[in-house]
Design brief:
The structure is a single chain. It contains ten helices and no strands. The chain is mainly α. The protein is globular.
Length: 178
């Protein structure tokens, strides 16, 4: 998706033209914060579905994903699917037909600890953004910790905090103040 198409989507969904400042904010989410344009569009759809048709609402939602290290369409969709699954598990009364993934898709999902494509993404992120080498052993240990602790999210920021034994806030601040 091109940036100009993304801006048109904002204007269509907000029902008005965007100001130059708003256009710059959208541009920054892609250019500075390294969000995929498709991920920005996905966040826009979430905002609209939650009746949040303002840049303030969008920026707060995008910031939430950025703080979790979620800047790709795939990562955001996976996070939302997991969040919805947790909600379903907590409520216990959501009908099976409302699941967004079929039984077939659930069976074929690769466990995080065995997902080498995701490991490669994390390894690259650690090398480029934190000048750290991530080992497969560290990746798999952190995946096991996340499986046992539903409060801990599997994302690069939390993994980095765990490896360095530092508070998450320090890691996030270090990343965004570069």
């Amino acid at each position: 998706m091109e940036l100009s198409d993304l801006i048109k989507q904002f204007e269509q969904n907000f029902g008005r033209l965007l100001s130059p400042i708003e256009i710059q904010q959208i541009t920054d989410w892609v250019a500075v914060d390294k969000f995929e344009p498709e991920a920005v569009y996905e966040i826009l759809k979430m905002c609209v579905l939650n009746n949040g048709r303002t840049m303030q609402y969008f920026n707060a939602t995008a910031r939430s994903f950025a703080n979790k290290g979620l800047t790709t369409l795939e990562a955001i969709q996976l996070h939302e699917a997991n969040r919805n699954r947790k909600k379903q598990d907590q409520n216990g009364n959501i009908p099976e037909w409302s699941n967004e993934h079929s039984e077939h898709e659930r069976k074929e999902k690769i466990p995080v600890a065995e997902n080498m494509e995701l490991y490669d993404c994390f390894k690259k992120w650690f090398a480029e953004d934190f000048n750290m080498q991530l080992t497969l052993e560290q990746y798999q240990k952190f995946a096991a910790i996340c499986d046992k602790d539903p409060e801990r999210q599997f994302n690069p920021f939390q993994m980095c905090a765990w490896i360095l034994n530092k508070p998450l806030e320090i890691i996030v601040n270090r990343f965004f103040t570069k």
